[in-house]
Amino acid sequence: MDFLMSGLAACGACVFTNPLEVVKTRMQLQGELQAPGTYQRHYRNVFHAFITIGKVDGLAALQKGLAPALLYQFLMNGIRLGTYGLAEAGGYLHTAEGTHSPARSAAAGAMAGIMGAYLGSPIYMGMFQALTEIGQKHGLVGLWRGALGGLPRVIVGSSTQLCTFSSTKDLLSQWEIFPPESWKLALVAAMVSGIAVVLAMAPFDVACTRLYNQPTDAQGKGLMYRGILDALLQTARTEGIFGMYKGIGASYFRLGPHTILSLFFWDQLRSLYYTYTK
Asked: What is the pTM of this model?
């Protein structure tokens, strides 16, 4: 049941945030490996990107890829949050004295993230016909193209997100700012987690997006980047340090709300379930 509730929470958040994912991806690919000022900027900022995409491609384009995104979120975050929830319920995130351990929380978040992301990688690569084409062209291994390159991003993002969420909830409970078991605890903790995860993940997010979108040769090998470290180094060298934070506004508007909604929905679904099954 933990995995089902986790998947449903992530899907609920995805419906609201998928347009932000579309905007973020386009902004991150804009001016790829070109020095600032040498290319035409189609999107000046997040809001301009929304308006431009809506005018040029139509409003439906803002929900492009929603079906595979929902499937990916259900599978990836269902496994990730479900695994973390089981670890939390089993008391593995607490010390022998019963206090919350940020180190254990971060480790559990990283491991849960690796499991979810690696199993969900084929869905991230495409859906149905795309999966068939990738499998025929690059073989079964091709379905996981870029998966290993994305693991550093997943480790950093998942551990930061879940550790910050649990630690903030624990601190707020100790300080008794809100009533015990109040929904406000989860909401504020999710908001803090949203800020932390965007700051930690932005460089990896840019690199991962470019790894997945780069052209490949007949063997499925990337033609532009050898891996995530190479993507980060090339981006920093060509576009400067701010190139690694390209689209951070869009990243926050996507990852921030998605983190807030998914963690909030997840926390509330678990609370309801445990309340009515006692």
From this structure: 0.72
